[in-house]
Amino acid sequence: MKPIRTFSIIPSLPEPLEPLRELAYNLRWAWNHDTIELFRRLDSDLWETSDHNPMLMLGVIDQQRLEAAVEDAGFRAHLARVWRNFQEYVNNGDGSAWFGRTYEKPAGPIVAYFSAEFGVTECLSIFAGGLGILSGDHLKSASDLGLPLMGVGLLYQQGYFQQYLNQAGWQQELYADNDFDNLPVRLEKGKDGEPLTVSVEISGRTVWVQVWRAQVGRVPLYLLDANLPQNRPDDRDITDQLYGGDDEMRIKQEIVLGIGGYRALEALGLQPLVYHINEGHSAFLALERIRCLMRDHGLTYVEAREAAAASLVFTTHTPVPAGHDRFPPEMMERYFGGYYRELGLNREDFLALGRVNPRDHSETFCMTVLALRLAAHTNGVSELHGQVSREMWRGLWPGVAEDEVPITAITNGVHFLSWISRDMKELYDRYLGPRWREEPADRQAWNRAESMAAEELWRTHERRRERLVAFARRRLHDQVARRGGSPREIEAAGEVLDAEVLTIGFARRFATYKRASLIFRDLERLDKLLNNPERPVQIIFAGKAHPRDDPGKELIRTIVTLARQERFRRRIVFLEDYGMTVGRYLVQGCDVWLNTPRRPREASGTSGMKAAANGVLNLSILDGWWDEAYIPGVGWAIGRGEMYDDRNYQDQVEAEALYDLLERDVIPTFYTRGRDGLPRQWIDLMKHDISELCHFFNTNRMVAEYTQRFYMPTAERYERLAADDLARIKALAAWRARIEQAWGQVRAEQVQAQLPRDEPRVGETLGAEALVTLGDLTPADVCVELYLGGVNARGDIVDAQVVTMEMVEPVQPGQYRYAVRDVPCDKSGLFGYTVRVSPRHEDLATPLLPGYIVWAS
């Protein structure tokens, strides 16, 4: 039976406790322990059973408890302290936070950060894994820094699945509805007081979405919801599940996210200067920005594309080709046939925006390619991932050397206040002072970690290991009972693990390239490691496989099956339903964080950063963040970054290296104790880990880097180009059209080097000349460069030095002589040179335009 109308019942709070409502609605509590303790103080059991959801908790708590809290002077004092601190935080962000100290206060919002998932807290289940956790940490640090940023995402009715294992150890998926009225989100209202809605066109029909807001400290997160009665039943399901369904569902979700998200900001009256496309899922927003610029300013498509590109930043997270969304041409035609005509494009020109090779009519439409083609700035999420991305996408920039492909890197980080245990925070407060919280990117604050008392650090860490073991036992007990285990099995679940034993953690998405089973390569050797009577080891696994990834599920089944063997039963545990709660216990309580991806397929790997911030030592393949983080004394590297064509051989080599490290270094170091019972060398490694890594691998540093390198330069450039009714945008578009028309005439010929002798000596200089034909272009339109470097065994120039050549004289109309002098010869060896010509304009975001570079013949 359907209701004829609906209404919401909100928690009833006594007047003195009314601040609890606002505290619950602002997700700052997710990283403020004092606020969390306030809610725990009301009812600690209810805090746990509500999945750490203060809105649900306040709605179901016994009214007598609330009345008792009013009479509790200690609780009221605690509430007053938390409320005062909260108000100071949200109201004083402009001047006291980093952004306000560094930049002038802007007239409006700076950045809109679009992402398909946001992992801010457990109870808001709109995230799947690392990408979502990173997005949530990005918002938290933007709030702490005072950056005028807003998030845009989808409010999934079910979100990502809950994982449980059947009796055979095979992953099963359970989808539970999110109850929006009992979540810390609020509907945005229009001027008429009604819920704010916007529409998008999907396959020729109108789909309506409403806008919710989750407040993340100082940062608003706008979330779109299509589950509205005016939509068709199948359209109401668009925002049902995160990464659920097929390509048809995926493209609908990405239309709602990118196009609907852009329209939602317009309806809210928000006009950010920069749009950050976090992974390709939201790249359709670039098309909507072009369309709206054409509509609002009377621009041509070419002009609007220049204007849109000037305000777009794109971050790619996926080094695995299969991880990039691609849609068949006929699907794009079905969903965008009317849309691309509004842009003034024909079918092939539109599809070319998402193709590496625009002339390949069979190539699918790739969301990453669309973002790469349109964004002013693109980055990977670690230095190694930046290199992999340049290699992966170099086809978009034909003729450009791989190291010059305009994809840079900003290495990920983690939000420390969300992931460091309370015990460790208190220790840091005593030894590092408040600066580690306020300015976590300040290296000087972390240097003090070396002075922490060894016994205090170790006892603090031991408490976290004890809590991890207790948590794992409870979790395993519930798992066994839930799947109908025998009384003996349920009782045995309480005997697994040992709070005194070296504990290794492995928790991440169960994709095959992450090689969760690498440590099982030699079971006899592993048996001896785990069950050594004097130096035992235990391993805790957790993680989800994608619902359609059967090989990933098979990895989980293999681990669960092995964990049931008598020899491994007490030493190997798999915890179901990996999420933020399980993750916190693991990164705070393990001794070693194990990571064994097949290099170079790990883009970043932020779980290892969370572990390091808690003094947990990493044991990892040199991939992702660990490739740039590892130095001797902060953990262990498996191998030296080698890569092999034979995957089976690579697995064997790296499994052997892993066993060797455990046997010869990790285990002896952990169990070698002084007369005081302390593992002094291990503790020194923990201190060094904290002092060397924490200042860099945090999201405050990361978001500040995005701001300095991308956000503010992009905002300033867009404002400059958009001034005077977008005069510079129009001029840039006209210049680009002239380049496109005349580029076929450009040639570089008759290149000659001017050497001091046949074999120059180190310390001498050389020069070069070239005859350059520009046709209808002028020297002001181009940059002519000498490209000089060593020559490798394949005859390619490597480690090139690029030197700008100057026009010295016109030879005839459209033809010019260029030269360069005094280029130093600074090392010996076989060298080669050539000359290249590329377009040049002061308003270009990047000097190398895709497809526009001419090398000397």
Describe it.
With 857 residues, this protein is α/β, with parallel strands linked by helices. It has 4 domains: 15-91, no CATH class; 94-409, Rossmann fold (3-Layer(aba) Sandwich); 452-697, Glycogen Phosphorylase B (Rossmann fold), CATH 3.40.50.2000; 746-855, Immunoglobulin-like. The chain contains 31 helices and 28 strands. The strands form 6 sheets. Strands 1, 2, 5, 6, 7, 8, 9, 10, 13 and 14 form a 10-stranded mixed sheet that branches. Strands 17-16-15-18-19-20 form a 6-stranded parallel sheet, sandwiched between helices. It has a 4-stranded antiparallel sheet with strand order 21-22-26-25, with no helix packed on it. Helix 13 (301-309) packs antiparallel against helix 31 (699-742), helix 22 (454-482) packs antiparallel against helix 23 (487-493) and helix 26 (580-589) packs across helix 27. The longest helix has 44 residues, at 699-742. It is globular and about 90 Å long.
